[in-house]
Structure formats: C-alpha cells, structure tokens
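Case study B.
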Amino acid sequence: MFDFKFDWDKSVEIGVPEIDSQHQELFRIGREVNYMLLINFNNITEDQLLTIVGELRNYITYHFYYEEAFMNEINYPNFLAHKNSHQNFKNKVNALDCDNLRSSFKILKELLVTWVFEHVLVEDYNLKAFINT
Ligand SMILES: [Fe+2]
Ligand SMILES: [Fe+2]
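Model:
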C-alpha cells in the first residue's frame, strides 16, 4: 500500500461545512495513527494508543449519525447502501483487538486509507454532485 499521509486538501470538500470539518477530524486521527507507526511507537504508552482508538470510535458514531440524518433530510437516493457502508466500517473499527494495540494500529492504518479512498472520496463525494443538481 502506498504511503498516504492523510493531509487535508480542499479538493476533498463536499461543500457541507459541518460534514467537511468532521472529515477533517477523520484525517487528523489518520495522521495520528500514521505518526505512531512512523515513530515505531517510541515512548508511546498503551493508554495513548487506546485514546486514539477511542477517539475514532466516538468520531465515527457521531459523524455517521450526522451524515445519515443529513442524507435522510435531503432524500438522498443511495441512503441505505451508504448507511450499510458506515455500519461495515464501524464493525471493523469495533473489532480491533485492543489487547494487541501495536498490531491493531497497522490494521487500523490500512482500514483508514481504504476508507478514505473507497468511501470519503467516492461515496461521500457523490453527495456533492447530488446537492448541486
Ligand atoms: Fe459516509
Ligand atoms: Fe463521511
């Protein structure tokens, strides 16, 4: 997998400020995960790793709730499929083994990169076209 660094770029924006800032938060967490791997967890405690996993779990619960409510409100046509994608990702994040956080972080980075490229930049980005029609 190529080395994606989760740098935020304006071209990723959908045009719904609240959703865009929530996506920025996902990228921020992605950068944290990336950093931990980059420094090889040097001087990092298990607690710090667990905090990041906790932040991500909270973030997706909040963000998915918000995004789904927004889609519902605008009668978004692919709502159910989109909701399913969210649930699948949520299941994967919740299934991370917190007893082996260092190996879980490698899995987590891959999960996040795939999520950005297959969901945020494609499925979420489709919202932009729908809003602008
Ligand atoms: Fe989404
Ligand atoms: Fe999203």
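The chain has one domain: 16-46+57-131. The remaining cases will be described in the next quarterly update.
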